[in-house]
């Protein structure tokens, strides 16, 4: 095992591998493997070199930063190298990092600045006497590409600095990224124009910045966040001072950044950011800690590839490569047929993934997905894992094309594709066992009737034993019948009956949501409840009166009418009411009802800190207000959390009032 020839050969192989992946990642913007797999190869090289320093060569990836610069751009030699960062994956790595620094400096405690690690493209922007002079990508760390023409199209980057800024040259470094919402919008437009869609916001940002034609870059929604500054004529004492100066110069910086002390402080920051990650407007792949004092930074210096005063604390990977064993379809609650990839199990962000959604047939064809393909799978938070793309370079010869079925796999009904729809559908409704089961699950779910203890397994049992065939049957089940089922004891049976009984007292909004009308989510259900005030009025509402509700368009209005035009659905409602379902209030909970926000329209943006998004939304709804997704002239208030993005700009452009969470809570208490 320790044979030096074997190790040397291994090192040669690993270096070759890294250089291939570097090329795909940095030059082609088309990674073949996930960041985590790349990091693993890199770490193995590093480990071998640490043990055998005589094997380090100048072509080692540990001796340089990134890939080759793209030849078709003018090359720019950086005045100071653009470095990379070492990685930490756990508390132990942070301990080692912090201890080394403390020992080297002979200091007991170190203050760090903790920042989000943006997942985009590093750029440097040089201002001379206040004017944007030059912008370049990182390239290989020493020589980058001139992207001044494209950087100038990013509106958040000033072309001129405020007149009181330091004279001479100022170099600013940061990350060009694409906000998650902008990315979704861009891909939608690309799709409509039959253009390439991007796998993730990072690739979209990189692909947009590396355009020779600035008009293309200008049409792409890019953002920029700065994290370092160097001034010819101003001495700075700390990273914090640098960030303050950037703010003064009106350069975008992240307001998630925080000063922290020691390893404890780092971990608290990491956990807080990790929790907020899903609701941040942009992707981050970890956090960065930097020694705050610039004197200390100078003293610590650099190793070949990275500063010794900073480290990146990476999140567990959210993307991984695996193969598709098979593809089959799932029938959704409203009959939609979704193709699902059955995968070779793979760990993504700490969770083993075996299935991933392929959305619909068009999506599957567009991504050219076949059974047997190698694919990249993404899992973001608790969202259903999805296949992002095929790794064509690894495509085997024996792949198999997947054909969508023509009959429902659950009930053999003929599937239809309605006009203007991208999904196939089984219209058998409650006659289809899959739709029956999912409707009951939805009905019982927390945001609907909230029947505690009624999970998927019990619903399966209830259906199999024919005790429950429709949602209204839930209210006729008796304890004695439950006792005949597997795994039910007296106590558990009584508890379930009690939960079912308790659910009878609800709100009109929750009841409408629970019915599972196609295209009627929670917010629309509350809107209907509030507008009409009674189930009878909703059931007989005219199209015009439905359309008069904010946020209800023709598709939703038609779905509502179609639902109540079905005799079986009207019967279900009648039986449920006869069984004793009732509400005192039309919206959330009677105790929460007030009308302080009556008639006001709110838009939520950024990361809220004291309330969760859902809580803020419910608070507004329960006080008679409305929540909208986009800022318009009709918006009364924008509630801005941390790092609020473009919605704030829109609010200020339209003169819409911007307030914080605390002020929102104050508003609800007024009067
Ligand atoms: S500091 C000398 N701060 O991460 C210090 N980098 O792996 C190097 N990045 O090239 C940069 N967010 O593209 C720094 N808050 C942040 C960052 C950050 C993202 C990227 C940057 C850099 C790479 C290093």
Automatic annotation (TrEMBL):
Function: DNA ligase that catalyzes the formation of phosphodiester linkages between 5'-phosphoryl and 3'-hydroxyl groups in double-stranded DNA using NAD as a coenzyme and as the energy source for the reaction. It is essential for DNA replication and repair of damaged DNA.
Cofactors that this protein relies on: Mg(2+); Mn(2+)
Positions with a binding annotation for Zn(2+): 408, 411, 432
Gene Ontology biological-process annotations: DNA repair; DNA replication
Similarity comment: family membership: Belongs to the NAD-dependent DNA ligase family. LigA subfamily.
Any one GO molecular function term: DNA ligase (NAD+) activity
NCBIfam families with a match to the protein in the record: dnlj, PRK07956.1
InterPro entries: BRCT_dom, BRCT_dom_sf, DisA/LigA_HHH, DNA_ligase, DNA_ligase_AS, DNA_ligase_CS, DNAligase_adenylation, DNAligase_N
Identification of the protein by name: DNA ligase
UniProt keyword annotation of Magnesium present: yes
Enzyme Commission numbers on file: 6.5.1.2
Organism: Methylophilales bacterium HTCC2181
Binding site for NAD(+): 35-39, 84-85, 115, 138, 175, 290, 314
Keyword Transmembrane helix: no
SUPFAM superfamilies, alphabetized: BRCT domain, DNA ligase/mRNA capping enzyme, catalytic domain, Nucleic acid-binding proteins, RuvA domain 2-like
EC class of the enzyme, as a word: ligase
PROSITE patterns registered for this protein in UniProt: BRCT, DNA_LIGASE_N1, DNA_LIGASE_N2
GO cellular component: cytosol
Ranges where the BRCT domain occurs: 592-671
Active site per the UniProt annotation: 117 (n6-amp-lysine intermediate)
